[in-house]
Amino acid sequence: MSETPETYAESVEKAIKNIRIADHMLYVTYPVIKDKRLLLKALDQIYDSIICIINAVLQYDYLFKRIQICKDAQANFQTFLEKCARRYNITPEESLEITKIISLMNSHKKSPIEFQRKDRIIIMSDNLKTTSIDSENLKKCLTLAKSLVTKIRAVMKI
After folding, report:
1. Are 115 and 125 contacting, i.e. CB atoms less than 8 angstroms apart?
2. pLDDT one digit per residue (tens) for the chain, 158 residues
3. How far apart are CA 80 and CA 157, in angstroms?
4. Which one of 87, 90, 114, 150 is most buried, counting C-beta atoms within 10 A?
5. pTM across the whole model
6. Is 122 helix (H, G, I), strand (E, B) or coil?
7. Where are the domains of the chain?
8. Residue 127 gets which letter from DSSP?
């Protein structure tokens, strides 16, 4: 039981680290190098930070016996959205954006084809549905991740 407070705090610290890396990629490295693959790396860092935030919230609420955690990641995500988000002042719009980021990363992982078009990366799914990523979209996602960390740190008093 003594390991649990460290694990949620470590998850928050890992999320902050991932946010800093993504921030540096989007605001410093990408404008200089202009390599579109950096956008995918930044998306990966933002996704990892959001997953760490969700894990920290679930661990913290489990510690205080507010929720039950199961082995199914999708069920835990639903628990986060339905039972935890309101407690941490996460708005429904932010919950929707979190879901979109997770969906975008899943489509990136499963995508058979990804290509560059102007200043965007286009992800094509098996059913030929396309999704595009550009630096402005990722900057909005990064702002969301920063906001989530701020809200969670305020409630957890880290």
Report:
1. no
2. 344 445 899 999 999 999 999 999 999 999 999 888 899 999 999 999 999 999 999 999 999 999 999 999 999 999 999 999 999 999 999 999 999 999 999 999 999 888 888 889 999 888 888 999 999 999 999 999 999 999 999 998 87
3. 19
4. 90
5. 0.91
6. strand
7. 3-89+135-156
8. T
**Neighbouring C-beta atoms of residue 43, cutoff 10 Å:** 24
Q: What is the C-alpha to C-alpha distance for residues 32 and 136, in angstroms, rounded to an integer?
A: 16
Residue 142, both tokens:
């990064």
Sole residue written with tokens 């200089």: 32
Place of tokens 């965007």: 120
**Nearest-CA neighbor of 114 among 32, 25, 40?**
40
For residues 79 and 6, give the distance between their C-alpha atoms in angstroms, rounded to a whole number.
22
Alpha helices (H) along the chain: 3-24, 30-33, 37-63, 73-79, 92-110, 135-156
